[in-house]
Amino acid sequence: MNTNILVYAERLRSGIPGIVYELLGKARALAEAHGSDISVLLPGPATEEEVASFGAAHRVLIVEHDAATSPTPEGMLQSVHDAAALTQPGLLLMPATTLASDVAALFAADTGARLVTNCIDFDITHDGITACSRQYGGKILVDVLVDSTPAVLCVLAGAFQEQEGCVTGTPSPVKLPSPVLPDQRMRATRFIPPAPGDVDLAQMPVLLSVGRGIQNKENIGIVEELASKLNGAVCASRPVIDQGWLPLTRQIGRSGLMVKPRVYMAFGISGAPEHVEGMKDAGLIIAINTDRTAPIFNVAHYGVAADALDVVPALLEALENVVQHT
Amino acid sequence: MLATEHAVEQIWGVTLDRLYDSEEGRRILSCIQCGTCAGTCPHGEYMEYPARRIITMLKAGLIEDVFNSDSLVKCVNCYACQTKCPRNIRLTEILLPLVKEQSILRLAQMPAELQKAVENTYRYGNPMGESGRKRAQWTRTSPVPVRIFSEDPRPADALWFVESDLSFHPRGQDIARATARVFHAIGADVAILGNEERAAGDCGRLSWEPGLSEALIDYTMSILQKYRFNRIIVSDPHALDAFKYRYPMFGFDYPVESVLGFVAARLDVLAPQLTSPIHKTATYHDSCCLGRHNALFDEPRALLKAIPGLSLVEMAHNRENAVCCGGGGGGMWLDTYYKARNMERLSDRRIREAIATGADVLAIACPYEVSRFEDAVKVAGMDQRMEVRDIMELLVESLGGQ
Ligand SMILES: Cc1cc2nc3c(=O)[nH]c(=O)nc-3n(C[C@H](O)[C@H](O)[C@H](O)COP(=O)(O)OP(=O)(O)OC[C@H]3O[C@@H](n4cnc5c(N)ncnc54)[C@H](O)[C@@H]3O)c2cc1C
Ligand code: SF4
Ligand code: SF4
Q: Is the ipTM of this complex over 0.85?
């Protein structure tokens, strides 16, 4: 069976979403088992750093789009056709985003390839490609066997571990022709950001999280001050939310939000498994707790056994000095 | 006894349109509309259609209205209505699951936390999403050796079904280790399935995923066949329910006991070893499955009374009248769904009753309760005053030594 893999790296405005690295991580595992060849299709312009971040792949196909052809599904469709012609994938992996799902459907319709949407898992087996798809708003899981290639899979974010795909390397860059669309039926005219509600914690690179150790609602004020200095936001453990000190949208954990910020600082949080479930994948975890035996230290990269109410003002002061010196 | 295919269909295959084909289903027609069910339901005040009204709507052919409300998503499967119904209608076992399944199907979106738990159970065999290969890891830190069947397949008197919370949750693991120590003290000959174990499938059913439960039941039945034992003893009361009421419909015929009942029956061996006194006051929270559903009211109290120094006080609602911790029927994964509807968390309500007794210890016997109540005492700001301990942990403390 053709086990070659083509991963579509969607680029939304700027930056590459985590799901692309999730797909690469899974692709890497499949390559190990089946010797698959891995290519990434990346809408340009691409920086060297971005290309290097696709170390899990053998090559990166870069396509320059002009403003008229990107990011429309029709524009991307042409590039996917070009990339598929070049790499002959047995497996085309797309993030299950609005745009990529359109591209996937158009590509499948054009080529007669089998398409499975909303996948949460997939594998290459003896009989073909198996995929598990989430249907009806998550109420039903369907196991699908695709016994012809290429299989086109739209995969939901969170299906795999992002770290597994974050390997730097030197994949060979290949330039693809820009799509030519004489009668573009669809055009992107402007970007409308979602209505401003509460801060989107999932997007914040720095999160300062408070637990019962913060003692009272008033003390959250200085943590907020620190957060604004660090371009971060304040979030909390469930008991803090339950007492009404912060809104429900700020709760981290199993019954709240799952977050993966670059830095997560936990002030006075004991590290109950229900809390840890929501933040354990953060890039850098720093825990501040008076109790040296608190379980939060088991997941923290750095730990400070101290009173949070001493540490926060000290950090504020230190930042003040940094600002003055620069 | 091997359940016949007919019997399986009778209950497992009951659908609402065939409800009156079975005797238990027809009993619904005898409802006298007394409203006891609605009045006793811990979430009754938040339900547009509590059990009594569901029956009216069903008779009037308006059941779709019930499905389209989310009333039954709020049912935590506590058996309070079924226990108190003067006409003995099996509400929690038959009618409510059918209605709940339809109500969840009609929700615009499955609550995210519940969906994740169900998917994890499907993919990994436990709602936490932990690797099945780590299931027996807790045994390495057990104070006494724990026999795993796959490593030592000799016949044992009992197969101990540990379940997911005791295998993976850190506080659950404390309870698992304590249970192993108690078994050791009474000289019980037990073995566990270790990494071969997967969730029994009760939570799947109670959160209305019958397909998932069936798959797990099939799996567990096939593993059980590999080993020789006389009985199954179960730590998790929800799994106990699965083995006692669901598995027999699939041809399962082993005697099943709760760990609590098993140990209580051997109190004559255990009691003389309980030499370290615990000078504290405890109050016991009756788990819905152990108490109302399986009538294990006296056994936990007998175990607690056997601990020297420990005095026992009762909460305002106890035994049949105990208030659910809110974890059953998928409630364990619906806290945020309920909170978004301004419903008070039942564990918070229950902990206030526990605190009002003045006890130092809240004794429990269900692994959901340890995390729910430990959290609830924190929310009440009473974690310095009251500790939450499983009965097995209290017994180990009284055994002394370690
Ligand atoms: C079904 C269920 C779902 C749950 N979901 C979630 C969830 O999504 N998110 C969540 O967070 N929790 C959740 N919980 C609750 C969880 O079990 C814990 O109760 C909670 O995370 C504890 O919050 P905490 O760490 O703030 O409080 P505590 O556990 O009380 O910890 C406070 C910590 O602060 C330290 N401390 C005290 N004073 C200071 C000081 N001056 N300086 C520094 N440290 C100090 C203490 O040593 C202690 O470790 C859930 C529970 C259940 C049962
Ligand atoms: S089982 Fe409990 S929660 Fe469900 S309807 Fe009956 S009383 Fe209410
Ligand atoms: S308690 Fe029983 S008899 Fe009374 S209303 Fe409810 S279902 Fe009917």
A: no
